[in-house]
Amino acid sequence: TQIVGQWKLIYRHSNPWSSYIADESAKNIVYDFKSNGILIVTGNQSAPHTDGQHNYFFGEDILGGLSSDPKILLVKIDGDKWTYNLSAGQMMLSQGYLDGESLTFARK
Predict the structure, then answer these.
(1) Where does residue 30 fall: left (phi above 0), alpha (psi -120 to 50 degrees), or beta otherwise?
(2) pTM for this prediction
């Protein structure tokens, strides 16, 4: 239930080695995580998640490729794994472990 609900994208960090963080707060990009495993994205025409319906999983899973790797709390959106962190009312989804981007949200 931590993830269920509407989350507005406020920051987008393209990769872990760059200090540039895009302020997306003026846009109305909303991720609506439904309790049935459906994610509805609105207001976003660019990657990684365009407008429309996506499947998601929220829970503990193996981040790496080895079955002996520890399970961590993560979000899988259309099969892509994102690490999950909730702090001070903000949620961060990150693919920094792949040198990918991070998305920061505020609950709407």
Answers:
(1) beta
(2) 0.90
User: Cα 59 vs. chain centroid, distance in angstroms?
Assistant: 13
CA 97 → CA 30, 32, 37, 57, 94, distances in Å? Answer: 24, 24, 24, 18, 8
Q: Mind listing the pLDDT tens digit of every residue in the chain (108 residues)?
A: 699 999 999 999 987 777 788 899 999 999 999 999 999 999 987 778 999 999 999 999 998 777 788 899 999 999 999 999 999 999 999 998 888 899 999 999
Coil, strand or helix at 6: strand
Question: Rounded CA gap, 19 and 71, in Å?
Answer: 29
State which amino acid sits at residue 103: L
74 close to 83: Cβ distance less than 8 angstroms: yes
Inter-residue contact 30 to 41 (CB < 8 Å): yes
Q: Among candidates 52, 24, 48, 19, which has minimal Cα distance to 38?
A: 52
